[in-house]
Amino acid sequence: MSAPATLAEAERERRDIVSGEVMEEARLIRFVAGPEGLVVPDLARKLPGRGLWVVADRASVDQAAKKGLFARAAKAKLAAPADLSGQVETLLKRRLLSGLGLARRAGDLTSGFEKAASAISSGKAAWLVEASDGAADGRRKMWAVARKQPRRPGLFGVFSAEELGLALGLENVIHTAFLAGRAAGRWTEDAQRLSGFCPLFPESWREEPSVSGT
What we know:
Helices cover 39% and strands 17% of the residues. It has helices at residues 7-11, 58-66, 69-74, 84-105, 113-121, 136-147, 161-168, 182-194; strands at 13-15, 22-24, 28-33, 39-41, 52-55, 109-111, 125-130, 154-156, 175-179. A 4-stranded mixed beta sheet has the order 6-9-7-8, sandwiched between helices. The longest helix has 22 residues, at 84-105. The protein starts with 6 loop residues before the first helix and ends in a 20-residue tail after the last helix.
């Protein structure tokens, strides 16, 4: 691996305590020692204490917990909860929902079939966020629009229409386009980290003709 070109780049790279590989922070989950000697996820990377970094996938977090790698890296007595990887998944989903709400208030989201399709057709969408329980017909039509674009938006279908509605302060949220920009870039980082813990859309969608080519 080539050395970082700048100090800023070096500061954004950390060593995964499971593999020993040095990689960008964006690919990792930060953990710290909690006040009671428990390992605590720090997704915002702001909690005090020495960071213990693990690549963002369930198998790695489970391995670090089961093999005592957090305590070894911290050189201290630390216990990892049995459901640590589940905690990370839950916290990532919470961050992603919060990010959608912030993006809507900032004008970086557009919802509804026609508005979302227009954003995608104009090449402005970074993500197509579909309700996990939305009708297949509408989803196929929306993705057919996306597939025509030289640069397709990402497809995200983790949350139900109710969950999306609560996050966005709207009713019956089925189709949403997340417009490209800085907010989408930050949200993408969390979405990519979540993909290590659960699929970004239901596996059953892969059987749908329009989505199977993603």
